[in-house]
Amino acid sequence: MSTTIILYIVLALLGSYLIGCLQPSYLLGKAIKHVDVRDYGSGNSGATNAIRVFGFKFGMVCLLIDAAKGALAILLIKLFLGPDVVGSVGAATLLQLCCGLCVILGHNYPFYMQFRGGKGVAASIGILLMIDWRLILIAGIPALLVMVLSRMMSVASLTFETLCFVGLAILCFHMDFYYGILLAAFLYPAMSFWRHRSNLVRIAHGEESRLWGKGSKNTGEIPKDQYEEAIEKLDEQAGVDLHHHNK
User: Fold this and answer.
1) First CA to last CA across the chain, in angstroms?
2) pLDDT of 123 above 70
3) Minimal CA–CA distance to 191: which of 123, 143, 145?
4) Could you give the C-alpha distances from 141 to 100, 127, 186, 196, in angstroms and in order?
5) Could you tell me the residue ranges of all domains in the chain?
6) How many whole angstroms separate alpha carbon 21 and alpha carbon 117?
C-alpha cells in the first residue's frame, strides 16, 4: 500500500470523527429551543434524550440526522476508498468499520462539547446498514420487535448492536482480514454497552424509562423533582413549553 493511500486513510479516519461531531440534538436545541439538552433528561445529547426533553417529532429529526451522518461517512469511504483502492473487499470492509467507529467516537466525545455527547446508536444504524443492507434483516427487524415488546430504547439499541456483530461475523467469514473485521465489529456493541452502563443498572432495578405507556416518564440520571423544576424554569426563560412536548 502506497504512502498516498495511507495518508488518504488517515484523513478518512479524521474526517469520520469530525462528521460524528455533528450533534443535531445539541445544535438544534441551542439554536431553536435555546437549551442544552444535556442539562436535562438523561444528561446526554442523544436522540432518545431529545425525544424525552423536546418531544417526539423534534427527537426523530435528530435521530434521522444522526443516522444520516453515519451513512454519509460510509458512503464517502465506499466512493473514494473502495476495494480497487485499498486492495480487497475485506480491506475495504475493515476500513469502513474503522471509519464508522471514528464517527461514533465523534458522536460520543465531540471535542467542542467537552467530550460529552450521545451514545452512538443512531449513528451506528446508518453506519452498519450502509456497510451491509442485510443487517436490516439480521438486526434491524429483531431490534424493532424488542423495542415494541420492551418499550425500552436502550434494550432495543443493545440488541441491534449485538446482532450486527453476529451478522457481520457470519457475512464476512469468507473475506480476508476477517479477524480484524471481527475485532472492529465487536467494538460496536462493546462501546454501546459501555455508554449504556447506567441504563443497565436501571434495568436491573426496574427503573428504566419506557418510550410510552406506564413508566414512560423521565427516570434518567437527573432526579424527577429536579427535572420538573428545570422544565418549568426553561418554559419561563426560553418561552418554550417543553413540559407540553414531553407529554
Assistant:
1) 56
2) yes
3) 123
4) 21, 16, 20, 21
5) 3-240
6) 8
* Mean pLDDT calculated for residue range 221-241: 51
Q: What nine digits make up the cell of 164?
A: 450486527
**H/E segment holding residue 145:** helix 141-150
19 Cβ contact partners less than 8 Å away, ≥ 6 residues apart: 69, 72, 73, 103, 106
Task: Quickly state the pLDDT bin for 1 (edges 50, 70, 90).
Answer: confident
Average pLDDT for residues 124-138, to the nearest whole number? 96
Cell numbers 427535572: residue: 227
Helix, strand or coil for residue 196? Answer: coil
For the cut 60, the answer to whether the pLDDT of residue 66 exceeds it is yes
- List C-alpha distances in Å: 91 to 35, 88, 175: 43, 5, 9
Residues 6+ apart with CB under 8 A from 101: 184, 187, 188, 191
Residue 187 CB-density burial (10 A; 0-12 exposed, 13-18 middle, 19+ buried):
middle
pLDDT score at 217: 53
Of 71, 49, 73, residue with least CA distance to 62: 49
- Angle made by CA atoms 149, 51, 66, in degrees to the nearest 5: 95
Distance CA 54, CA 155 (A): 22
Can you say how many angstroms the Cα of residue 116 is from the centroid of all Cα atoms in its chain? Answer: 13
What is the per-residue pLDDT for 232?
A: 58
Question: Mapping DSSP to helix (H, G, I), strand (E, B) and coil, where does residue 167 land?
Answer: helix
Distance, in Å, from the CA atom of 125 to the CA atom of 206, rounded to the nearest integer, reads 27
